[in-house]
Amino acid sequence: MVRSSKKNWIFDLDGVIVFTDKFHYLAWKKMAKTIGIDLDEKTNNRLRGVSRADSLEIILEQYKGEPLSQKKKNELMEEKNNLYREYLNEMTPNDVSDDVKKTLRVLRERGDKLAIGSSSKNARLILEKVGLTDAFDEIADGTNIKKGKPDPEVFLKAAEFLHKAPEKCIAVDDAFSGIDAAKNANMKAIGIGDSARYEKADYKINKFSDLLAI
Ligand code: B16
Q1: Any ligand 1 atom below 6 A from CB of 124
Q2: Global confidence as pTM
Q3: Is residue 1 part of a domain?
């Protein structure tokens, strides 16, 4: 079968290309403990795809003390981020599956455009550690946006960086908030992992290489 046209892919990072959610969890858990909160997995699941500041607010729902100043919140976020980056610094190319590596290579060989659309301010560090910086034509991340997913900003930025109209882009995201962001951006949305059971996803896939059949 002849493939009709080249495609423009925008990939979420955490949960699609790499799996750093366990590091987020360990870092948030340690930070939360310092203010008397025992972060459990159920609350942690609500942090998937959510910005750093919004994640802190979700954790603080369990905080029993006096209201915290913005300065204190910034300190807590910095503390969490420092812990998180210690884990990231241990990452290597072995932290990316062969399925993901091979699929990215094939899409590139087909002439498709590839971008990252991640809420993370650490996206470039992660890509560098796992050796994937050059696998993408463009990177839109937490440093380029004011509003996190489900706001479409990061996916729209990625489309802008690729010089492509949003409706010509396909976003791949594991979080419900990411699928909402893609639909809010007027893009096709592909669900994988958690979001493969989300009815708003236009396509649902089990593994990354299933993209090659779309
Ligand atoms: P940072 P993604 C998201 O990455 C994570 O899923 C989410 O848990 C995190 O809070 C957010 O990035 C911000 O990350 O603290 O590193 O800026 O899934 O959009 O690639």
Answers
A1: no
A2: 0.94
A3: no
